[in-house]
Amino acid sequence: MITDSSIPAETILSTPANHRKLRIGAVGDLHWPRIGEGELRGLFTQLGEQADVVLLCGDITDYGKPEEALQYVAHLSILKGIPILAVLGNHDYECGQADRVTDILERHGVRVLDGTAVEVRGVGFAGVKGFAGGFGDRLLQPWGEPVLKQFVHEAAEEAIKLESALAKLTTSTRVVLLHYAPIVDTVLGEASEIIPFLGTSRLEEPINRYRATAVFHGHAHHGALEGRTRDGIPVYNVALPLLRRAVPVQAPARILHVPIQQQVQVT
Predict the structure, then answer these.
(1) Which string of b and e fits 106-129 if b means at least 16 CB within 10 Å?
(2) Which helix (H) or strand (E) holds 23?
(3) How far, in whole angstroms, is CA 151 from its chain's centroid?
């Protein structure tokens, strides 16, 4: 398990002495049943010991089959009542049954975020799946064939959903949960040909505007562990295959301590 002592110091975000901290355990791309029962149980056991809330950053299942989701949720009792938040990933959509996968997860205590927000113990969480489209000056634009315009529209809609979710939060500590990456830094290391399909900087704008405390995503199995937005907000890639290589232990996940602070007035 990645712990606070084995990763960079910013993993323990600055907390005033009179404020408490929430321990977040985050991991993505479990691809059940590809992960295997033993590894999954080991991961959940360690998260149950080290986290106050668990984030699942998409690709929970391998093909988006309801039977995969049913097999997966059978192991959730290991987390012993710890709040679990999730977003779906592209693999969870593969069979066209994402609604059924979501229903199964939620009936077993997983809160699936899709342009929605939730508060857990004084910390706000906003989540969407996200989408592809590229980054920065090479961001795909809505120009040309209708199918390209539709592709860009999907990315823009995900960014709008994230903005809407962040706008609902009244906590000063705001955590963003994604599957696709909002910055290029955490996908570097992937083949250059696929980088535009791993995320989009359209997701970065609402993250900066609402001053998120931290961002978690998956999807980029060969990317980098962390980066920062243009405004300096930390972004963590928690794709399980990447964590396995970076931290050669049985059940890697990212553990982040964030401050539990007062609510802020929304005007």
Answers:
(1) eebebbbbebbbbebebbbbbbbb
(2) strand 20-27
(3) 22
Interval 70-121: pLDDT, tens: 999 999 999 988 999 999 999 999 999 999 999 999 999 999 999 999 999 9
Pairing of strands 123-127, 174-177: parallel
Of 250, 243, 152, 160, the closest CA to residue 209 belongs to 160
Q: What is the mean pLDDT of residues 128-146?
A: 92
- Asked whether the beta carbons of 92 and 58 are under 8 A apart, the reply is yes
Q: Alpha-carbon distance 71 to 65, whole Å? A: 10
**Rg, the chain, Cα only:** 17
Place of tokens 């994402």: 98
**Which 8-state DSSP code applies to residue 207?**
H
Domains of the chain, first to last: 9-260 (3.60.21.10)
Helix, strand, coil percentages in the chain from 3-state DSSP, rounded to 5: 35, 25, 45
Per-residue pLDDT tens over the stretch 159-190 = 999 999 999 999 999 999 999 999 999 999 99
Cα dihedral 247→12→128→87 (10° resolution) = 50
Instruction: Please tell me the distance from the alpha carbon of residue 130 to that of residue 179, in angstroms, as a whole number.
Output: 6
Q: What are phi and psi of 228, to 5 degrees?
A: -140, 150
Report d(CA 219, CA 195) in Å as an integer: 11
DSSP 133: -
CA distance 23 to 259: 9
Residues in the chain: 267
| pLDDT computed for residue 118 by the predictor | 97
> Edge-to-edge strand order for the sheet containing 84-87?
110-112, 84-87, 53-57, 20-27, 254-260
